[in-house]
Design a protein that fits this description.
The protein is built from 10 helices and 13 strands. With about 280 residues, it is of the alpha/beta class. A 6-stranded mixed beta sheet has the order 10-9-8-13-11-12, with helices on both faces. The chain is globular, with a radius of gyration of 18 Å.
């Protein structure tokens, strides 16, 4: 039986790839006061960062409603397909639970499985894309789930921030709180472990942070996919791509722009390098 893949907007999958792999993306919601916007649909990244700069109201975010997921499940299963939904880490968001609740609301959907990726941003996206590639090649639902699980153990990312203040305000800072509080200008580095934000280190300059990111990517013995994502710092992202091209073909490095929901929790200046591959 055919399989369709559903995910959330935090997976940061470029729209062209989502169309090519027939991935349905359910947007989270970002709010400025009483005004709500569907992530990546009603508000572009440029518009979001302009509002972040000028608004007196700090943005908040919310998960997709169960009914939004139910509609996606019904649409995906309209041709008789089974559905695999892959969400961002349940330790960072209630999106996974919303997708679980949606299974009882879907009117037409047949079998629906919901998987917690344990990741976020394009690392989550790599997992989703591998499941979609398997489904497109004719994999069963169990085989698509296995492809996703196998990929989840072979992805990693490193993120460099200008500040962790946005993570702190949003309550997602976790163990990385120890990086806060310095009176010096630092560039904090974080990663995800067991679905939660963890400190990786901190540097005294952006250049040194990029050095750390290149070193991180160079630690893989084989690289199948690589991506560089950013939040309103395109020049830094392209500088990183240029340096990473010495270890992975430049034309195969995926570029992404973090969605407004991600930007609400990271602020401008975030840069991410994500890798799907193997470490020694």
């Amino acid at each position: 039986m055919p399989v369709k893949i559903v995910t959330d907007s935090v997976s940061d999958i470029p729209a062209a790839i989502a169309r090519e792999l027939d991935i349905a993306v359910v947007p989270l919601v970002v709010r400025f006061g009483e005004q709500s916007y569907r992530d990546g649909v009603d508000l572009t990244s440029d518009e979001f960062y302009e509002k972040l700069r000028t608004s007196a109201v700090f943005p908040s975010t919310s998960v997709p409603s169960p009914s939004a997921f139910a509609e996606a499940f019904d649409a995906a299963s309209a041709d008789g397909s089974e559905v695999l939904a892959i969400t961002l880490s349940s330790k960072l968001s209630g999106t996974y639970n919303s997708a679980l609740q949606a299974r009882t609301l879907a009117a037409r959907a047949g079998r629906v499985e919901v998987m917690d990726s344990g990741w976020a941003a394009i690392a989550e996206g790599f997992i989703v894309m591998q499941a979609a590639r398997a489904a497109k090649a004719g994999a069963s639902l169990e085989e698509a789930m296995e492809a996703a699980r196998g990929t989840a153990g072979r992805v990693d990312f490193l993120a460099a921030f200008d500040t962790l203040e946005y993570l702190r305000r949003g309550g997602r800072i976790g163990a990385a709180a120890g990086l806060m509080g310095s009176l010096l200008k630092i560039n904090p580095l974080i990663d995800l472990r067991d679905g939660l934000v963890h400190p990786f280190g901190r540097t005294r300059s952006r250049a040194k942070a990029l050095d750390q990111m290149v070193s991180f990517a160079s630690g893989f013995s084989s690289i199948e996919e690589m991506a560089v994502g950013h939040a309103a710092c395109a020049a830094d992202a392209e500088a990183l791509v240029e340096r990473l091209s010495s270890i992975h073909p430049r034309e195969r490095i995926l570029r992404t722009r973090l969605t407004p929901v991600m930007g609400s929790h990271t602020g401008p200046g975030l840069i991410i390098v994500a890798v799907r591959g193997r470490t020694p």
